[in-house]
From TrEMBL:
Its main location: cytoplasm. Keywords: Allosteric enzyme, ATP-binding, Cytoplasm, Glycolysis, Kinase, Magnesium, Metal-binding, Nucleotide-binding, Transferase. The gene is pfkA. The keyword Cytoplasm applies. It comes from Pelagirhabdus alkalitolerans. Homotetramer. This is ATP-dependent 6-phosphofructokinase.
Length: 319
C-alpha cells in the first residue's frame, strides 16, 4: 500500500490530533503517502483531500479538537454517497482509509469495506461506548475535565451546604458518570445501564445529611435524561437545597492528557500496520493494555458493556 487516507468523523475528542499525527508519521516512516480528508465523510464525498507531510502535523499533539475537522453527513448513509466517496479516493489513488470516530463513523467504514474499499477504524469518542476496547481516545481527557470542574463545584457546595446534581456527557453510556463519580467521591451515580431507584438515592442523601455531611454530589449521565428535572425532584423530595450543573461541551475540549496522547499514538500506529498487512474492516482497540483488533461488523453488533465491578465498588464506597 503506497497511499492511505485518514479522516475524523462524528463528535470530536481530545487526542484525535495525536492520532492523525501518528498515522501521518508512521505512514511516512514506511514510505507511504498520507492524505488528510477534511470534514469527515462529507469532505470525502466533496473531495476535500490534501496530502499531508511531516510538518503538517507539527505542533498538533497537544491540541484538542481535530485539525481535519469533523462533520455529520446524512448523505453518506446512502449507496450513492458511499460510491461518491470511493470515487474521490480512487481519483487520488488512495488505497486504504483510516476512520477515527465513534460507532456511527464505523458504520460508514464498514459500508466502504463491504464495497471492496479497505478501511480501519480507530475509536475516538469521549463516551467510551465502543465494545472491543477498554478505552476510547478522548475519554480520559473528558474524565479529567469533569473531575477538575467538580472539584471546584465541591468548594461552593460545601460553603453553602448544598446538594449538586452534575449532568455529564456519554450519550447512552454511563462510563464518564461512573468514573467521574468514583473519582469525585459522589454520593450517587445515575446511569442508563443501572436502574438506581429514586428512593435509595434520596435515602442516601438524607443519611449523609443527618450524619453532618456538608454537601452531596450526584453524578448523572445524560443518557438517563435531564439533570435539571432530576435536581428538582431531589429538592422536592428532600428539602435539601439543590443546584444543577450541566457541564456540556466543555467536556469535549482541551489539551489531551498524557494517557490519551499515548493511547491515540498506539491505536493509530496499529491501524497503519493493519492496512500495510492488507487487513480491512477492522477496528483497533486496547484490552488489558495490549493492542488488539476486531472485525468492525462484530463490534457494531455488540452492546457496550459497562464495568460492573467498578459500579459495585462505587456503591460500596458511597454508603
Ligand atoms: P460520536 O459517538 O462521538 O458521536 P459517531 O461516529 O458515532 O461519533 P455519528 O454522528 O453517529 O457519530 O456518525 C458520524 C457519521 O458517520 C455520520 O454523520 C455519517 O456520515 C456516518 N454514518 C453513520 N451511520 C452510518 C451508516 N449506517 N452508513 C454509512 N455512514 C454512516
Amino acid at each position: 500500500m503506497k497511499k492511505i487516507g485518514v479522516l475524523t468523523s462524528g463528535g470530536d475528542a481530545p487526542g484525535m490530533n495525536a492520532a492523525i499525527r501518528a498515522v501521518v508519521r508512521k505512514g511516512i516512516y514506511h514510505d507511504i503517502e498520507v492524505y488528510g480528508i477534511y470534514n469527515g465523510f462529507q469532505g470525502l464525498m466533496d473531495g476535500k483531500i490534501e496530502k499531508m507531510e511531516l510538518g503538517t502535523v507539527g505542533d498538533m499533539i497537544q491540541r484538542g479538537g481535530t485539525m481535519l475537522y469533523s462533520a455529520r453527513c446524512e448523505e453518506f448513509k446512502t449507496d450513492a454517497g458511499q460510491n461518491q466517496g470511493i470515487e474521490q479516493l480512487k481519483k487520488f489513488g488512495i488505497e486504504g482509509l483510516i476512520v477515527i470516530g465513534g460507532d456511527g463513523s464505523f458504520q460508514g467504514a464498514s459500508k466502504l469495506t463491504a464495497k471492496g474499499y479497505p478501511c480501519i477504524g480507530v475509536p475516538g469518542t469521549i463516551d467510551n461506548d465502543i465494545p472491543g476496547t477498554d478505552f476510547t481516545i478522548g475519554f480520559d481527557t473528558a474524565l479529567n475535565t469533569i473531575i477538575e470542574s467538580v472539584d471546584k463545584i465541591r468548594d461552593t457546595a460545601t460553603s453553602h451546604e448544598r446538594t449538586y446534581v452534575i449532568e455529564v456527557m456519554g450519550r447512552d453510556a454511563g462510563d464518564l458518570a461512573l468514573w467521574a463519580g468514583l473519582a469525585n467521591g459522589a454520593e450517587s451515580v445515575i446511569i442508563p445501564e443501572r436502574d438506581e431507584p429514586f428512593d435509595s438515592v434520596v435515602e442516601r442523601l438524607k443519611r449523609g445529611h443527618n450524619r453532618g455531611k456538608k454537601h452531596s454530589i450526584i453524578m448523572l449521565a445524560e443518557g438517563v435524561g435531564s439533570g435539571i428535572d432530576y435536581g428538582k425532584r431531589i429538592e422536592e423530595e428532600t428539602s435539601l437545597e439543590t443546584r444543577v450543573t450541566v457541564l456540556g461541551h466543555i467536556q469535549r475540549g482541551g489539551r489531551p492528557t498524557g494517557f490519551d496522547r499515548v493511547l491515540a499514538s498506539r491505536l493509530a500506529g496499529k491501524a497503519v500496520d493493519l492496512l500495510r498487512k492488507g487487513e480491512a474492516g477492522k477496528m483497533v482497540g486496547i484490552q488489558n493494555n495490549e493492542l488488539v483488533h476486531h472485525d468492525i461488523v462484530d463490534i457494531l453488533n455488540k452492546p457496550h458493556e459497562l464495568d460492573m465491578k467498578l459500579y459495585q465498588l462505587m456503591s460500596e464506597l458511597s454508603i
